[in-house]
Amino acid sequence: MEHNILSQALPKRKWIEFGSNRQGIILTELDYELLLLLFNQRLLTTQQLFLYASSKKSYNRRAFTNRMRKFVQYDIIKHHEYELGNLGFRFYYYRIGKQGVDILINEGLIPEADSPEQIQKIHKRIGSYSAIKNVDHYLGLQELVIHTLGKVAQRGEDVHSISPGMNPYVDEDPMSDSPLVIPDWILRRKNRTLNIELDTGTEKQARLREKIEKYIQLAKQEPWVHHVVLIAELDDSFRTRFKYGDRTRRIGNVKHSIINLRELHQENLEIYTLPLQECYGLTFELLLGNRPFTKEKMVQHLQATLKILEDYNDTFEFSFTSIKNSKVYLKETESHYYADGVYNIKNISGSLTRNVFFVSLEAGHIQSLDRLDYLHSLVLEQKTKIPIDLVIGYYHDSEEQRMDVLGKDYRKLLIIDTQQWSENFTESPIFYKPISPYRMEAIMYEDWS
Length: 449
Description:
Helices cover 37% and strands 23% of the residues. By secondary structure, it is α+β, with helices and mostly antiparallel strands. It has three domains: 2-132, Arc Repressor Mutant, subunit A (Orthogonal Bundle); 151-288, type ii restriction endonuclease, domain 2, CATH 3.40.1560; 295-447. The longest helix is centred in the N-terminal third of the chain and has 21 residues, at 135-155. The chain starts with a strand and ends in a 6-residue tail after the last strand. The model has no long low-confidence stretch (mean pLDDT 92). It comes from Bacillus salitolerans. This is Replication-relaxation family protein.
């Protein structure tokens, strides 16, 4: 089922009567929007509904909760209680009720309800929402979706929220009679499609790898669509009966089960994996096309940073000389693996000189890690026309570096934060050296070995 809530023509204000004693309720335009949202998303918590409503108007939490109770009273919505075990905390989550569906049908807001038989099917379907298994997973997924839709509502963007089971990706293989791949949820804006996978840590990495292979096939099958796959790791930012703790190692393992996949670098495919709490600010940027950062933008950023360092930092007594790609790469190296720049870095006396790959990194971005991994292997195996001594990975800003997980001990790698370099250009630049797959230590460039 696909509904674009923001494009619906909704009633402004209407009295809805129940029974013969003139009992009823006045529904506002926002009420209709919330009912349509709940119908489309199937299950939502009080907080998720409140979050979306608050993105549209200033709302008092107590007044909103009382409004939901009124809706439950008239069977406009059905409520369920979620208890957090011995933690003594509980919350309510909802599905749409029979009266709620009928209200939407009467206003023509459910196009599929075009016959008595279809209406009966819809009534039966909404009842099944109460039996959705693994409620923790489903509500955690909707936490991310609703955060995104709230931002969409504030910006007035045109985004479709899609239940994947009702809109499966068809496998074009004539021998296949099953969907190609089924995400947990889909958000679509223009030609950009965000496929969300919420990982609780129970799915085997081999299964995730198989899914990514299907997404690669999907991207090849639909070259006119820019597909983004976001694997969000469920964490304690959304409270459930379970404690998920630090997801760093899980993310590292997932990343390294995916990188090196054949045909991973499709022009219309991007893959990310991050903890849920880091995804709230990312999803909307992915839909807008602001992420990943373009290679052109990152190269310009790198060149500006190196110029500042070379011209204005008196503590870093090294010069940068660009080396042409034609002098570096062997014929078998595919161009999408090329570094953003290859430089000879030399001190004033000439006693310390190194040839270095510079490669941009982005938190959670699988393809940028895959490029780093490949370039690092070229350095280790010396599969270049000239010896390359080191890879320097650089981030756009400090937050990106903080959020990212490399998940491997790259011994020929240094990490830099270009934001820190630009803002503190009179101080000695700090480099970070991996000392384990999940830890780094700060060093000076000349101390690396």
